[in-house]
Structures are given as C-alpha cells and as structure tokens.
Amino acid sequence: MNICELGAAIQVARLNKPITQAKLCEAVRISRPTLSLLETGKLPEVGIRKVMEVLEQLGLELTLKEARTRPTLRDLQRQNENAKVAELTQPTIRKRAPRTPKDK
C-alpha cells in the first residue's frame, strides 16, 4: 500500500462514518489542510503517530504484510518461455467447415 492508497482508504472510512474533516482534525489535533493532503496522498511527510491516531478515530488499524517482490528480467523470460512451450504442447483443435446441404 502506498501513501495514495492509504489516504484514499482514510477518506472512504471518514465519509462512511460519516465524520467531517473538521471533527476528525479536532480529535487528532491536525489542521484541515494536513488531513486533506493526507487523504489525497499529497502530504510529503506525516508522522506515524498521527496516522495511527487518525486510523484509531476511524476504527481502523494498520497491519503489516510481506511485500510482494517484482519479478526479475530472468523470471519474466522464464515465464515467457514456459508459455511458449505450453502453447506448443497444447493439442490443436481444428474447427470443421460448416456443412452445406447436399443438392438433390
């Protein structure tokens, strides 16, 4: 999850409560422009404690999971080779031409 996704999730949760930006800001002691920037993913820096306070007010929690790694070029080449082999080993199904009525 990146900062834009986090901000969007915060905004959706806030709107679903519903709670105004002003009330949330008052509860966590941040300015409305700061919250707005957080919700839009444009806040350059934000402390983790502030994020945790915002999430707590919205009934959310931050959890960690192992990051997905991007495949290497070699991984992608192997996938491509495997796909080609699979394509070549698949049985070919030929479609028959439609039957035409025989002339009497």
Automatic annotation (TrEMBL):
Residues 10-67 form the HTH cro/C1-type domain. It comes from the Bacteria. Residues 73-104 are annotated as: Disordered. Residues 93-104 have a biased composition (Basic residues). InterPro entries: Cro/C1-type_HTH, HigA2-like_HTH, Lambda_DNA-bd_dom_sf. It holds the Pfam family HTH_37. This is XRE family transcriptional regulator. It comes from Herminiimonas contaminans.
